[in-house]
Design brief:
heterodimer, A: mainly alpha, 13 helices, B: alpha+beta, eleven-stranded mixed sheet
């Protein structure tokens, strides 16, 4: 087990290096370079431009820049943003609570909805309930979130005037009234993201459940005379959960990265919006910072999912 | 001032880059949704939309491009300057009547009061006394001098440094009087410390950061200013919260206790927030097609205000041949004149074949009006001598006269074996692509073959010498974009067409004369304009230069573009000027409940 863990951690190092290298190279070679905005400005003489390049560290060749970035990253220094000239780590930390709040709630909503619905529609396959749930979930994950987001805004903000559609990140939750305001402004994005994830998760749970229902061990359990609930709980659920756990573990890093489009639609100042804006501004340090933290989380949660396998399925040996 | 043209150009194009890439679907969908969802529902005002504070105490500004830094001299876009302008002030600014309004200046320098030197080489400003920074420290001449030192320090790398290159030094006469000595005779003395690029920084905050460490200055993110409101909280890329500045000289007259400048999202929903739902009081720069804006305005919560600045959408004609290559691989080289656009008759025919009315009215709507001038603002400088006309018959006749006829029956005009094949390039932007289509249709009717090309704005406007698709390389026959002068003095804008400014391989493709037009008579006029102190004579020179460009069809002006904002019905005092940022007079903004 320990050996397996060490092995996995060691193999994840080249993966991370590869990811960072690819992202860095793409950013360095992309046409909209970080100096682009400065370059269109003729009041910057070549001499001053060279100065800015030097202060941003862009005068050095790409390999040196990469090594410098890696060295700083290993020391926990994510560098300074090109456009706001403030530390990248600060920018990320400033936005993390909002993203975690919205994405966490959305994910929670997804799990609460998907588990019962998925299991029931698998057990009552082809019943009317199953048909309805299946149809709704198909619609749910076929519609992109920016569309449902706009639809929600039109219906609940513009027409019914129930919720505001501009997220107020300066709101301080101090009493019940402000807490209620916080809930109000979070409902729409949480629902949009939650329903979307619930739809995907529900389909997954349903199919993984169905796969187990026809297995021999289930028939054996039933023929032993076990009550239905026991069979579901003790036998089916445990086996059906294995792929579901993988899926869920892999999606948790997404909580950190936020949602690129939905955050933009609702003006939520989360990590996703930061990433999109930084890409538009060719703000390399911020893009690198977010993608690397995200990559590390993905690798970590992959490992976690594999470890959970062993716990859920004792046949898996490390 | 020259730099602002370019910032403007990149501003508008980054807007389109963003809006096009991200919200082209969003806009389409909102279009369909609003058209079915704009039924009047004005009766109910729901308490859920109310805020902690009573609404008239807080002003909500919505900028769908979010500010990232609050130091205008280190910023690269107007979004940052806008947010900074609420806190920081210049010495003075031009209003839309072209009158200088003093901010930190006690009076406007004139020749009569001795402010402007008779030789045009210096200007003396009197500064207001008893002005305090928002932290209580007094504002003096030292702050203005320091601002110049900060801007012109190459180690700081400010984006406004080019404008201040005309200054030789600044003398401190006393604590509230400064004398700016220019390097040369400078009729445009009002281009420094005035308007958008003229904001004064506090010396005591930035003194320790006048160097390579400028990015670490806390004042970049939490500025101290003399303006009506001061920053309480700033989250880069998201929101700026201001409160009334108790040290402001007219603090009692301010309309609000608190300002919230929220950024992010897209232009269409920003328009909706002001015009339809009233979630925000002011929305900046609504670059939304007018057929989407109009139904939103019917929502009744707000109105659209448009500000015709200096931005002008134009067609640039390549005077050199983009299809011939020099031995060292240079296209559009001065060595090869254009096979047909070097003929004035062909250029004239081209201008006659463009239907400006259709483009302005159908595509731009309230966002623009047709124009025939290169300089479109200030009104005093706009030439009365130019006309535009749409007449395909006349155009065909001119081409026939010039000898361009279809001799080989392939429906394309030719002469001496050269076919009239045109490559027409611009940036990716829905309005520009539609404009291209309209023009292509007329030109093909006329017997030219037109190939349209659209380039990603981040490449097209990048000035990257290594990239062949930039405006400077101009590897096409025609190109379309917009720019203008943000300073009432158009001299540096008119410099665009001087011979020295031609981008070629030899100068690593730097320069703004992308049409590669070279006319010694024009250059001579420009030289004259730079040193002419008599305003009336200078104006005549500018008009003459404008006419030279337009009547010889060196450039084809199409549309004078407006900047559009959304304003709440109950918000008063919003008065836009082309020569400063939209919040320049925010001290006068009031809201009736």
């Amino acid at each position: 087990m320990t050996r397996y863990l060490i092995n996995r951690i060691l193999t994840s190092i080249p993966t991370l290096i590869a990811i960072s290298l690819v992202v860095f190279l793409i950013l360095a070679l992309a046409p909209g370079n970080p100096m682009g905005e400065f370059a269109t400005n003729p009041s910057i003489t070549p001499e001053v431009r060279e100065n800015i390049r030097r202060s941003l560290g862009l005068d050095q060749p790409i390999p040196i820049r990469y090594l410098k970035w890696v060295w700083a990253f290993l020391q926990g220094d994510l560098g300074y943003s090109f456009t706001s000239r403030s530390p990248v780590l600060g920018l990320i930390l400033q936005r993390l609570p909002t993203t975690l709040w919205i994405m966490g709630l959305a994910y929670l909503l997804a799990v609460i909805l998907a588990f019962p619905l998925g299991i029931i529609s698998a057990l009552k396959r082809y019943s009317i309930l199953d048909q309805i749930v299946t149809t709704v979930s198909f619609i749910g994950f076929s519609l992109p979130t920016f569309f449902t987001g706009l639809l929600f805004i039109i219906i609940f903000s513009v027409q019914l005037k129930w919720f505001p559609f501009i997220y107020n990140s300066t709101l301080q939750v101090t009493n019940l009234q402000t807490f209620w305001q916080q809930i109000q402004q979070s409902i729409m994005p949480v629902c949009v993201l939650g329903f979307y994830q619930a739809a995907i998760l529900m389909r997954f749970i349903r199919s993984s459940f169905l796969e187990q229902l026809n297995q021999n061990y289930v028939r054996t359990a039933y023929s032993k005379g076990l009550p239905k609930l026991n069979v579901i709980n003790g036998h089916i659920l445990r086996n059906a959960l294995i792929p579901v756990v993988t899926l869920m573990a892999l999606e948790i890093p997404g909580l950190f990265a936020g949602s690129l489009v939905t955050e933009q639609v609702f003006r939520i100042p989360g990590i996703g919006a930061l990433l999109i804006d930084s890409i538009f501004r060719s703000d390399t340090p911020v893009i690198m910072g977010i993608t690397m933290v995200y990559a590390i989380l993905v690798v970590l949660f992959n490992l976690l999912a594999d470890l959970l396998y062993g716990f859920l399925d004792p046949r898996v040996q490390y | 001032m020259k730099s602002t043209q370019y910032r403007m150009r990149s501003l508008f194009d980054s807007i389109y880059l963003k809006s096009y890439r991200f919200s082209v679907f969003v806009s389409l969908i909102s279009l369909t949704l609003t058209s079915c969802g704009s039924s009047p529902n004005s009766t109910s005002t729901n308490p859920s939309n109310s805020n902690q504070q009573p609404p008239e105490k807080t002003l909500k500004l919505l900028y769908w491009q979010a500010p990232t830094i609050l130091n205008p001299h280190l910023s690269t876009g107007f979004k940052d300057s806008e947010a900074s302008r609420i806190t920081l002030e210049p010495l003075a600014s031009f209003n839309n009547q072209l009158k200088l309004v003093p901010f930190l200046a006690a009076e406007i320098p004139t020749i009569e009061n001795g402010g402007i030197a008779k030789d045009g080489k210096s200007v003396t400003w009197k500064l207001k006394k008893d002005v305090k920074w928002s932290d209580g420290k007094p504002f003096t001449a030292d702050d203005v001098i320091f601002t110049f030192e900060f801007i012109s320090n190459p180690k700081v790398g400010t984006t406004t440094s080019g404008t201040y290159k005309i200054i030789n030094n600044i003398e401190k006469i006393d604590d509230h009087r400064i004398k700016i000595n220019f390097k040369d005779v400078t009729p445009g003395w009002y281009s420094v410390f005035v308007g958008t690029e003229g904001m004064i920084l506090p010396r005591h905050i930035f003194e320790a950061y006048n160097g390579e460490n400028s990015r670490q200055a806390p004042g970049n993110l939490k500025p101290v200013g003399t303006g009506p409101y001061r920053v309480v909280e700033f989250k880069p890329g998201d929101v700026v919260v201001y409160e009334a500045n108790p040290n402001f000289r007219e603090a009692k007259l301010l309309g609000f206790e608190r300002l919230e400048l929220k950024g992010g999202g897209d232009a269409t929903s920003a328009a909706r927030a002001v015009l339809q739902t009233g979630d925000a009081d002011y929305a900046y720069n609504l670059q939304v097609e007018s057929n989407i804006l109009k139904p939103l305005e019917a929502g009744g919560k707000g109105k659209i205000v448009s500000n015709f600045g200096t931005l002008m959408e134009r067609i640039l004609i390549n005077q050199t041949d983009p299809n011939k290559t020099t031995p060292d691989g240079e296209r559009s080289s001065l060595k090869f004149p254009h096979p047909f656009f070097s003929d004035p008759k062909v250029r004239q025919a081209l201008s006659l074949a463009i239907n400006r009315e259709i483009i302005a009215n159908q595509l731009y709507g309230i966002l623009g009006k047709p124009t025939s001038n290169f300089v479109v603002n200030p009104p005093q400088v706009v030439s009365p001598n130019t006309r535009y006309e749409f007449n395909l018959e006349k155009a065909a006749k001119l081409l026939d006269e010039a000898g361009w006829k279809d001799t080989n029956n392939n429906r394309i005009r030719d002469k001496n074996g050269v076919e009239m094949n045109i490559v027409f390039q611009t940036s990716v932007n829905p309005l520009r692509q539609k404009t291209q289509e309209v023009i292509k249709q007329s030109l093909e009717q006329l017997g030219m073959k037109v190939e349209l090309k659209s380039i990603d704005p981040s490449v097209y406007f990048s000035s990257d010498p290594a990239n062949p698709d930039t405006t400077e390389r101009f590897a096409a026959d025609l190109q379309l974009f917009s720019t203008g002068n943000t300073n009432p003095d158009p001299t540096s804008y008119l410099k665009t067409y001087t011979c020295d400014d031609i981008p070629q391989k030899a100068n690593n493709w730097t320069g703004d004369n992308v049409s590669r037009y070279c006319n010694p008579a024009y250059d001579a006029l420009w030289e004259q304009a730079t040193t002419e102190i008599d305003p009336e004579k200078q104006k005549q020179i500018w008009i003459k230069m404008n006419d030279m460009l337009v009547n010889n069809t060196i450039v084809i002006p199409l549309v004078h573009r407006a900047e559009v904002g959304g304003v709440n019905q109950n918000l008063t005092g919003v008065k836009l000027t082309p020569w400063d940022l939209t919040v320049w007079n925010i001290k006068d903004w009031k809201k009736t409940p």
